[in-house]
Amino acid sequence: MLSPAPARAGSVTIPRKVARIASTVIHETTLLLTLSGEFDLSGASSLRTTVRAAEGQRQVILDLSGVTWLDSSTLAVIVSTYEAVNERGGTLGLVRPRPDLWEIFELTGLTHIPSFPTRESALAGGELGGGP
Predict the structure, then answer these.
(1) Residue 56 maps to a domain
(2) Which residue, 26, 94, 107, 108, shows the most beta carbons closer than 10 Å to its own?
(3) More confident call, 15 vs 115
(4) Boundaries of domain holding 105
């Protein structure tokens, strides 16, 4: 995967953190996707592809704790994933990102998606019934 060009601020080059997704199947029916870096349109597209490839999973956990930036295209993928998983009788849970990014979820009304402060609490959530 090509690394995005560094952002420029005046004469200082600021390197971007490439979006990364690690996929782990847990307990045969639970998929843990660990996201890190900056999620723009390209990262959202990769996330969409990864989620579609895992349609057989009853539970999906998106660990957003390593995400440093996300845009509306990534939020759209999270919403469509939530809807798709619910339609097949499953559940989607989020491991919350850092507070400044979680504020985006609050402002856009996405806090109805079950969320957890840590990966461990999300995995211990059984059927992901836990909330904030």
Answers:
(1) yes
(2) 94
(3) 115
(4) 20-123
